[in-house]
Structure formats: C-alpha cells, structure tokens
Write a structure and sequence with these properties.
Blueprint (H helix, E strand, L loop, with lengths): L7 E6 L5 H10 L5 E5 L11 H17 L2 E6 L2 H14 L4 E2 L5 H7 L4 E6 L1 H4 L2 H8 L6 E6 L3 H6 L6 H16 L4 E5 L7 H8 L4 E3 L2 H14 L12 E5 L4 H7 L6 E5 L3
Parallel strand pairs: 1-2, 1-3, 2-9, 3-4, 5-6, 5-7, 7-8, 9-10
Helix pairs in contact: 1-10, 2-3, 8-9
Bound molecules: D-glutamic acid.
C-alpha cells in the first residue's frame, strides 16, 4: 500500500497568484511533491457571490483529491474567507487557509493606521469582519478593494503603465492617510511588491502571509505524520485552464521537475 505521506500537497487559487504561496511552501518543504491548480478561467473570484466562490472551491478540491493530495492549501484569501468552513465540513482532509495578516500589521504599526489591499470578496466576508474585530480599537484599518489588479496580473501586465497607474490610485491616498503598514490580502499581490515600493519607497512596511502559511502547512503535516522528508527529487505539477504563458513566467526558476498541463476543467 502506498503510504499517504508520499502523496502531494494540493494547492489551489483562482489563478496564478497562489504560486507566491507555492514558492514559500516549496522553500520550507523542498522534499514534498506539489500539485497546483490555477482556475484562471474563472478569475477573479473577488467579484463573485459567496455561493459561486463555494462552488468553485468545491470543484477545485475534488480535482485535487482525485490526484491523491494529502492536504489542501487554499492559496486564495477570497476562497478561504468565503468557503473554507464549508470545505472543512465536507471533506475529511486537512485544509490550510490564508487570511490577510492584519494581526502582525496591528502589532507593528507606529502610526496606528494600517491599510489592507484585498478583493471585494475578502473584505466583505464575515471571516474578515470577525478577525478585524479582534484588533485593538485604537488602530484604524483602511480597506481598499484592489479592483482590476488580479486581471492585470493574470494577463501578465505586472510591469505595465496600467498597473502603475492603478496601484498609485490605491496606494497614494494611503500614504496621505498616514498608513505605515500595508497588508497584501490577496495571493496575487506579492508579485506587485517591487511596483508598490516604487510608489511608496520605504515609507511603508509591506506584509503578506506567505511564510506563515508555509509554516502552518508544515506544522499540520507534522501533526498528522504526513511529512515526506526522504524524497530527494520532488515533483511539481501545475494545472491551468487558460494559456500557461503567465504561469510559466512566474514559476520559471530552474526547478528540475516542473510540469505544466493546460487543460479545461
Ligand atoms: N489570489 C486570490 C486571493 O488571494 C485572488 C482573488 C480573485 O480571483 O479575485 O484572493
């Protein structure tokens, strides 16, 4: 019988952004095989209804389970905040989710004003509201919907004039409002850090949750004795239901066993 710890870590996102999480997981757990699903055809999730996000998250989970995953990382803030409770209830497998890192931002701010850049779906979710309520009341949270950013990234326009203009329209008002910590509440946004730095210089601390998610994944695998630490040649499969060009650009890092499958799902 194949031991479950040889199975893969399944990761899904509404598109290519969750590869920012895959990268962190791969750095921390280099011996683990991974299977990444990019539902780019349905991006952005952030403008969809809660029920649509739940349905897509179920579809993605079923896809990964058929490929023998031992744990599923929901590498999407929008899917986590809207659907992870349903997934945990429905499937007998550990799920790791990702939420905007507002707690570390609240601990580090000196101006007592933090900014959260995330999708409408994340900012409107009851899970986000619940987490926000746990933050010290002296801290002001400025929420910004990053409308249009996911679409530009999905289309490979990371370094474009359109991106600079859109990002500036979201970020410059935050500088004026004395925000000193900016939380990236969407897994696509870490790919914009250099662009954001060009706009704000080092006036703001930029916080994302990638490393914390990787650590949590490791801790849960250890808890269930699912760690695969003997595998010297880990394999990484990527499935995408759109053109693979942008995905390829984001993950090309000379990794030996990287395979991308373009297919409809
Ligand atoms: N990467 C997804 C997230 O973290 C993007 C959501 C979307 O597709 O709108 O929320």
């Amino acid at each position: 019988m194949v031991k479950q710890n040889k199975f893969s870590i399944g990761i899904f996102d509404s598109g290519v952004g969750g590869t920012s999480i895959w990268r962190e997981i791969n750095a921390l757990l280099p011996n683990e095989n991974t299977i990444y699903l990019a539902d780019s055809k349905n991006a952005p999730y952030g403008e969809k209804s809660k029920q649509d996000i739940i349905n897509l998250s179920i579809k993605n989970t079923e896809f990964l389970l058929k490929l023998n995953c031992k744990i599923i990382v929901v590498a999407c803030n929008t899917a986590t905040t809207n659907a992870i409770d349903v997934l945990r209830e429905k499937y007998n497998i550990p799920f790791i989710g990702i939420e905007p890192a507002i707690k570390p931002a609240a601990l580090n701010t000196k101006s007592n004003t933090i900014g959260i850049l995330a999708t409408k779906g994340t900012l409107n979710s009851s899970l986000f509201e619940k987490t926000s309520k746990t933050i010290n009341q002296k801290i002001t949270i400025k929420e910004i919907v990053g409308k249009g950013l996911v679409e530009l990234i999905e289309n490979g326009k990371l370094d474009s004039k359109e991106m600079t203009a859109l990002l500036s329209s979201y970020i410059i008002p935050l500088v004026k409002q004395n925000v000193d910590s900016l939380v990236l509440g969407c897994t696509h946004y870490p790919y914009l850090i250099s662009q954001i730095r060009k706009i704000v210089g080092d006036k703001m601390q930029i916080i994302d949750s990638g490393e914390a998610v990787a650590k949590q994944t490791k801790a849960v695998l250890e808890k269930y004795q699912l760690i695969n630490d003997k595998n010297k040649n880990s394999e990484h499969q990527f499935y995408i239901n759109k053109d693979k060009k942008v995905l390829e650009m984001l993950i090309s890092n000379n990794h030996k066993k990287l395979t991308i499958y373009e297919m409809d799902f």
